[in-house]
């Protein structure tokens, strides 16, 4: 298989414009003859479904939540980047492009990222027109804040809930099309398989999560907008329902999975309190602007802190190790996410972690409160402090916060070409579930940008090109491929329901998470990854033998829902480990201990690994096949990151 | 027209009727109270009886009083309609409700409070309003010296089958002003000699106070009135004037009558 | 562990929308005060599953108070005893050892029970579909900074827009009225210049759908505002009323 990224020829800045012109169009009168299936209702899914319906296509949209508005895009806090240059501080499309490529540690396609930067400005216009209440200045114009990885202020925000406001905007556009009859919305429907006819995506199989009904839906194209797979780690900042099932089943139907090992681990999350922990809560990384990260200098002292014999505020300045400031004097506490996360882990692994579990480090606002006053700190971070207090019952005004890194975002996903089409014709992947724009590390406030760019401004053009080439002949579910896919789904459900073992699905999920976190988390090495692979295979075998799945299909059944998701996570976990084993370099969120500089920093190997690793499914318990898409950099110079 | 009827048949429209009638009734209470203050006059009921006559025979007031009766009926009927819908909106209730945590007792019990008030109004109107209009009320004659209006001579004119009419004239010979009036005051006096009646009135006024504690400011909200600067004034008036002072003064009347006679 | 609590749960169990439900009592022993309320239910469920008993079904997703999926009427209050948080943000330290906790689903005709504690809130979606949007297509919109919006107006619109569609307002209201939710949605767009062209059309369409769904009347008890995890103000309801009366009784154009 040759991976054709279909990147247009010509100068970087003209590629997208030229490409849009070259794409085939569907005649307005013909659009209503096409049906498009959209799975997922987050920023990418809702914006795509609404926009395609506005153009005249018939859209069938699906989400597993009880309302499209609950998709996990809702939880994004910080903001959305756009190269508007409203601040007159030197921003430009090219600068946003450059920051994103560099932030991604040179593992993304130049053309895709440039397109993203171009469309970023349109997103803001669109959202404002919909009535998204972005923060404003007293003069009535839009306000911006600055974010990590950039030296300009280009982040638009809506207090701490930019994700919710943007999603509500897309949701309202979707609602308008539902009302107009152009979108048929299926809530509480989970996609369980992709249907391909003659190698082309033609439909999906879903389970109605209320009645258990297994249904087939046919369309001229299928768009997956199903988000990331961070929950493979069990504990992450993702929502409980976030899962990989849709893209994983597409992968098993032939779509290639790219860079599965690229995981972003966010440094400022609220630490785990015990085995009961079900998810992790992120706090904005803006906290690191004023908070100082430290642990006790010695293990003995840390031990006393963990036992509650010593309070952090009583530890003398000399006995504290401000390890980020010590190791990275020029960036200090503001090093990128991956560096901050890794160093926190190292400190804890060294036995100097704090909190009862020893799995956290301090983020201390004592200095900031002394310097700025309590009210200034409150004005800046009050809502975050409240949230922290609510969860931990510790008052961050009186004692240092405790933080620990948590899985936050997955840069990997289904491989897509420049048109966002996967290797299966007619199957597209948008937003976090594709691999395309963030390389090996995503910059803050870029996820929202990508989801909306894909849905509002890319897919409406590129999808038309494919549809025009297939023609509007009606599609239905009568093809035997639908019956076959449906039967497979039903068989799997019956297998699950017959599993009456001894171990709960959550236990398997937790075990998988521990393996992934330990060996395929913030730092990875060959030995550990090999061990992880063996452990996952063991876990998988045990799962199919000993798991408990309760209830029946014809009802709301959270046990059955979980069974499918956990089964897929286990398989995906193994692929992530394979990918991490293959990529012997360190880059962005992927840190291979074997590949580091003398100072212990991530070291890329551009000679051997400047490619996208795309994996092809070859059968259950058969090694996946690696395909490489070489990354060509014509506009930026590859440099080693340094934050010393 | 379609828009109007659709407007009033919506949940918001029905509540608007509740709000408008409720506020109108509240306004009436003020008038009623001011009028009834005549009861506190130590004039053998002259002012009160003259006031009663005026209220029932002055055309504009008569028109308003019909609006008033209609308001009472609408307010009660719509309360029933609204409550029925509310019950239908939650046919299965909660096993445990901690309403005190989020709302005032009054606001949650407007229906019960209103029912008590309605029963009270029926009794009240039966005793005074119906008696005044159709009952065989005695007449009373007041003679006041023109030189010294403080001096009043009251003569009961027992009901003897001869129809009397309200009259007011000046007796030049005797230098007096003579008023012959239906003696509602006497009825009031009689009624408030009964302990249970006084107690019923006092309780009803307490209930009225609670009803208005929520109702007055709620009525304004239902009209859509809400203003950062003026809402506190409405809340203040609602609490002090309508839920405390007005019911308290009303309650004082039977107590006063009970002890004064 | 020391400091852990033993609790008794009285949980509403109902197999599906049509069957009758009942309260079932569960022991929840050894519960850490650091657990969130939903994590406590996870633990109880895990123990049920081990005994091969059907776990307690409840809706939840983001577990950080923004998706609005979690519900639960806990000890007589939606989202439990604390102000301005959702059930997923409620922690067990708000309860004490030995306590009996009653857990019920949201109760409203418009929110039928699906199973156990999960209810169907799609009525809220339908209300928004009726008109909760600005009719603009993707593309062809003016530059974002062409519309200047006073900060106070933008902030007020934002306050209305913080609604997470959880339904606590309906659950808290003794009349099961959806007024706070609907008015918050209406207000956000009624305040902003972008929402003006459809302002009166929108309020009529959304109120009509709200009535259609069978929610009760707003009698201004204010319970919704107190129980709203996002502290949405009652002002929104009054704003909705003004716009609605205006549209129905004063506007000359017959809009709806």
UniProtKB/TrEMBL annotation, chain A:
Location (main, coarse): membrane
InterPro entries registered for this protein in UniProt: FAD-dep_OxRdtase_2_FAD-bd (IPR003953), FAD/NAD-bd_sf (IPR036188), Fum_R/Succ_DH_flav-like_C_sf (IPR037099), Fum_Rdtase/Succ_DH_flav-like_C (IPR015939), SdhA/FrdA/AprA (IPR030664), Succ_DH/Fum_Rdt_flav_su (IPR011280), Succ_DH/fumarate_Rdtase_cat_sf (IPR027477)
Keyword Oxidoreductase: yes
GO terms for cellular component: plasma membrane
Protein's GO biological process: anaerobic respiration
Catalytic activity, as annotated: a quinone + succinate = fumarate + a quinol
Chain ranges of the Fumarate reductase/succinate dehydrogenase flavoprotein-like C-terminal domain: 509-643
Gene3D superfamilies: FAD/NAD(P)-binding domain (3.50.50.60), Fumarate reductase/succinate dehydrogenase flavoprotein-like, C-terminal domain (1.20.58.100), Succinate dehydrogenase/fumarate reductase flavoprotein, catalytic domain (3.90.700.10)
Recorded superkingdom: Bacteria
EC annotation from Swiss-Prot or TrEMBL: 1.3.5.1
Compartments, as annotated in UniProt: Cell membrane
Keyword tags: Cell membrane, Electron transport, FAD, Flavoprotein, Membrane, Oxidoreductase, Transport
Record bears the keyword Cell membrane: yes
Protein's membrane topology: Peripheral membrane protein
All residue ranges annotated as the FAD-dependent oxidoreductase 2 FAD-binding domain in the record: 36-448
Active site per the UniProt annotation: 337
GO molecular function: electron transfer activity; flavin adenine dinucleotide binding; succinate dehydrogenase (quinone) activity
Known cofactor(s): FAD
Pfam families membership: FAD_binding_2 (PF00890), Succ_DH_flav_C (PF02910)
PANTHER family documented for this protein: SUCCINATE DEHYDROGENASE 2 FLAVOPROTEIN SUBUNIT, SUCCINATE DEHYDROGENASE FLAVOPROTEIN SUBUNIT
Family indicated by similarity: Belongs to the FAD-dependent oxidoreductase 2 family. FRD/SDH subfamily.
Protein name: succinate dehydrogenase
Provenance organism: Arcticibacter pallidicorallinus
TrEMBL record, chain B:
Segments traversing the membrane: 16-39, 59-81, 110-129, 196-216, 237-259
Gene3D superfamilies in alphabetical order: Fumarate reductase/succinate dehydrogenase, transmembrane subunit
InterPro entries: Cytochrome_b-558 (IPR011138), SQR/QFR_C/D (IPR034804)
This protein's GO CC annotations: membrane
Highest taxon in the source lineage: Bacteria
UniProt keyword annotations, A-Z: Membrane, Transmembrane, Transmembrane helix
Record protein name field: Succinate dehydrogenase / fumarate reductase cytochrome b subunit
Organism: Arcticibacter pallidicorallinus
Classification lineage: Bacteria, Pseudomonadati, Bacteroidota, Sphingobacteriia, Sphingobacteriales
From TrEMBL, chain C:
Molecular function terms from GO: 2 iron, 2 sulfur cluster binding; electron transfer activity
Name of the protein this chain belongs to: Succinate dehydrogenase / fumarate reductase iron-sulfur subunit
Pfam families hit by this protein: Fer2_3 (PF13085), Fer4_8 (PF13183)
Cited NCBIfam families: PRK07570.1
Organism: Arcticibacter pallidicorallinus
Domain of life: Bacteria
Domain 4Fe-4S ferredoxin-type: 154-183
PROSITE patterns named among the record's database cross-references: 2FE2S_FER_1, 4FE4S_FER_2
GO biological process: aerobic respiration; respiratory electron transport chain
Homology family: Belongs to the succinate dehydrogenase/fumarate reductase iron-sulfur protein family.
InterPro entries on file: 2Fe-2S_ferredoxin-like_sf, 2Fe2S_fd_BS, 4Fe4S_Fe-S-bd, Beta-grasp_dom_sf, Helical_ferredxn, SDH/FRD_Iron-Sulfur, Succ_DH/fum_Rdtase_N
Cofactor(s) listed: [2Fe-2S] cluster; [3Fe-4S] cluster
């Amino acid at each position: 298989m040759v991976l054709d990224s279909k990147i247009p020829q010509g100068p970087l800045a003209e590629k997208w414009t030229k490409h849009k012109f070259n794409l085939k169009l569907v005649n307005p009168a013909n659009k209503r003859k096409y049906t498009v299936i959209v799975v997922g209702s987050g920023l990418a899914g809702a914006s795509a479904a609404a926009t395609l319906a506005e153009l005249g296509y018939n859209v069938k949209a699906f989400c597993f939540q009880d309302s499209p508005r609950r998709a996990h895009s809702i939880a994004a806090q910080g903001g959305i980047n756009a190269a508007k240059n409203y601040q007159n501080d030197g921003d430009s499309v090219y600068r946003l492009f450059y920051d994103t490529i560099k932030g991604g540690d040179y593992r993304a396609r130049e053309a895709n990222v440039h397109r993203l930067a171009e469309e970023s400005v349109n997103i803001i216009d669109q959202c404002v027109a919909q009535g998204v209440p972005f923060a404003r200045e007293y003069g009535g114009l839009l306000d911006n804040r600055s974010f990590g990885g950039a030296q300009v202020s280009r982040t638009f925000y809506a207090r701490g809930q930019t994700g919710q406001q943007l999603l509500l905007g897309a949701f309202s556009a979707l609602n308008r099309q539902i009302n107009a009859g152009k979108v048929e919305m299926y809530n509480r429907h989970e996609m369980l398989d992709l249907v391909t006819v003659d190698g082309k995506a033609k439909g999906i199989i879903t389970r109605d999560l209320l009645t258990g009904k297994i249904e087939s839906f046919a369309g001229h194209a299928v768009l997956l907008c199903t988000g990331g797979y961070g929950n493979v780690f069990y504990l992450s900042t993702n929502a409980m329902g976030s899962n990989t099932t849709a893209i994983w089943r597409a992968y098993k139907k032939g779509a290639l999975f790219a860079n599965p090992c690229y995981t972003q681990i966010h440094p400022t999350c609220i630490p785990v309190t015990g085995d009961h922990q079900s998810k992790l809560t992120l706090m904005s990384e803006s906290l690191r602007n004023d908070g100082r990260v430290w642990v006790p200098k010695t293990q003995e002292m840390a031990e006393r802190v963990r036992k509650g014999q010593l309070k952090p505020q009583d530890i003398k300045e000399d006995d504290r190790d401000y390890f980020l400031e010590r190791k990275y004097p020029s960036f200090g506490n503001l090093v990128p996410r991956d560096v901050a996360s890794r160093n926190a882990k190292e400190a804890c692994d060294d036995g100097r972690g704090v909190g009862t579990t020893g799995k956290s480090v301090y983020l201390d606002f004592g200095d900031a409160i002394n310097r700025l006053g309590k009210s200034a700190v409150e004005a800046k971070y009050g809502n975050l402090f409240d949230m922290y207090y609510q969860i931990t019952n510790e008052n961050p005004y009186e004692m240092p916060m405790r933080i620990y890194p948590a899985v936050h975002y997955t840069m990997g996903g289904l491989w897509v070409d420049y048109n966002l089409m996967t290797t299966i014709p007619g199957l597209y992947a948008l937003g976090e579930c594709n691999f395309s724009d963030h390389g090996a590390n995503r910059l803050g406030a870029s996820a929202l940008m990508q989801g909306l760019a894909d849905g509002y401004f890319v897919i409406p053009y590129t999808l038309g090109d494919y549809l025009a080439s297939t023609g509007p002949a009606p599609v239905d579910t009568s093809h035997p491929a639908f019956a076959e896919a449906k039967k497979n789904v039903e068989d799997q459900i019956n297998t699950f329901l017959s599993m009456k073992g001894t171990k709960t699905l959550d236990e398997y999920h937790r075990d998988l998470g521990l393996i992934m976190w330990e060996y395929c988390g913030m730092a990875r090495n060959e030995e550990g990854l090999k061990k992880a692979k063996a452990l996952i295979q063991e876990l998988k075998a045990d799962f199919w033998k000993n798991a408990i799945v309760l209830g029946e299909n014809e009802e709301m059944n959270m046990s059955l829902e979980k069974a499918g998701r956990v089964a897929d996570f286990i398989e995906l976990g193994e692929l992530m480990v394979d990918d991490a084993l293959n990529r012997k370099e360190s880059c962005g969120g992927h840190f291979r201990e074997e590949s580091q500089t003398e100072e212990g920093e991530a070291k890329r190997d551009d000679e051997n690994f400047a490619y996208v690793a795309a994996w092809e499914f070859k059968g259950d318990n058969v090694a996946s096949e690696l395909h490489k898409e070489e990354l060509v950099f014509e506009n930026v110079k590859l440099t080693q990151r340094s934050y010393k | 027209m379609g828009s109007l009827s659709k407007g009033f048949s919506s949940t918001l429209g029905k509540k608007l009727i509740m709000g408008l009638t409720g506020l109108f009734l509240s306004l009436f209470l003020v008038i009623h109270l001011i009028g009834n203050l005549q009861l506190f006059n130590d004039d053998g009921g002259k002012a009160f009886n003259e006031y009663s006559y005026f209220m029932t025979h002055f055309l504009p007031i008569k028109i308003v009083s019909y609006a008033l009766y209609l308001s009472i009926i609408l307010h009660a009927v719509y309360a029933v309609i609204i409550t029925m819908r509310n019950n239908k909106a939650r046919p299965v209730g909660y096993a445990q409700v901690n309403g005190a945590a989020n709302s005032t007792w009054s606001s949650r019990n407007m229906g019960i409070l209103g029912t008590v008030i309605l029963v009270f109004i029926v009794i009240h109107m039966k005793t005074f309003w119906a008696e005044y209009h159709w009952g065989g009320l005695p007449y009373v004659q007041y003679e006041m010296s023109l030189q010294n209006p403080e001096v009043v001579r009251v003569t009961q004119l027992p009901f003897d089958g001869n129809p009397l009419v309200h009259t007011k004239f000046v007796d030049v010979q005797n230098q007096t002003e003579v008023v012959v009036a239906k003696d509602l005051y006497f009825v009031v006096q009689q009624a408030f000699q009964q302990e249970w009646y006084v107690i019923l009135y006092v309780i009803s006024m307490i209930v009225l106070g609670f009803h208005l504690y929520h109702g007055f400011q709620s009525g304004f909200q239902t009209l859509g009135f809400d203003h950062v600067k003026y809402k506190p004034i409405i809340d203040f008036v609602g609490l002090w004037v309508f839920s405390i002072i007005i019911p308290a003064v009303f309650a004082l009347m039977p107590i006063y009558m009970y002890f004064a006679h | 562990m020391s400091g852990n609590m033993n609790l008794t749960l009285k949980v509403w169990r109902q197999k599906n929308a049509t069957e009758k439900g009942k309260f079932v009592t569960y022991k929840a022993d050894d519960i850490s005060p650091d657990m969130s309320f939903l994590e406590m239910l996870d633990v109880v469920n895990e123990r049920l599953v081990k005994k091969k008993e059907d776990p307690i079904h409840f809706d939840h997703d983001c577990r950080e108070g923004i998706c609005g999926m979690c519900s639960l009427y806990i000890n007589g209050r939606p989202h439990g005893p604390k102000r301005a948080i959702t059930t997923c943000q409620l922690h067990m330290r708000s309860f004490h050892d030995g306590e009996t906790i009653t857990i019920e689903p949201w109760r409203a005709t418009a929110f039928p029970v699906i199973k156990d504690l999960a209810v169907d809130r799609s009525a809220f979606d339908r209300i928004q579909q009726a008109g909760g949007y600005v009719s603009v297509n993707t593309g062809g919109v003016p530059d974002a900074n062409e519309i200047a919006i006073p900060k106070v107006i933008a902030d007020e619109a934002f306050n209305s827009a913080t609604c997470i569609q959880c339904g606590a307002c309906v659950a808290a209201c003794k009349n099961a009225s959806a007024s706070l939710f609907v008015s918050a949605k209406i207000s956000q767009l009624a305040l902003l210049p972008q929402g003006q062209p459809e302002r009166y059309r929108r309020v009529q369409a959304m109120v009509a759908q709200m009535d259609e769904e069978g929610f009760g009347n707003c009698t201004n008890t204010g319970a919704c505002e107190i129980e709203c995890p996002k502290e949405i103000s009652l002002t929104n309801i009054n704003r909705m009323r003004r716009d609605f009366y205006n549209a129905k009784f004063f506007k000359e154009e017959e809009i709806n």
